[in-house]
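Here is a typical sample entry:
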Amino acid sequence: MKLDSRKTAVITAMHGQALNASWNAQVKPPQQLQASTWVKLRELPSPYSHDEALLLCQHSETEWVVWIPECGEMVLHRCQLGEA
């Protein structure tokens, strides 16, 4: 018996698309961040800092300049910011 590699490739591609569709349905879209908005912090810069930060401006596609009371200005990655 000879294995038809074209059929195997099509089946593999279809299976991958089904997995991607089910995974994408479970993932929330990234939240839209806006300057002058207070957000919760997922990680505190120090044990004594506040748990919220004020978004000042976007630093790059994935980073924001924030102001944290008692801590000052910092550049944080989006993954460090929680819900607005």
Remarks:
- The CA atoms of residues 50 and 69 lie 6 Å apart.
- The longest strand covers residues 52-58.
- Residues 5-26 form the longest helix (22 residues).
- Residues 38-80 form one domain.
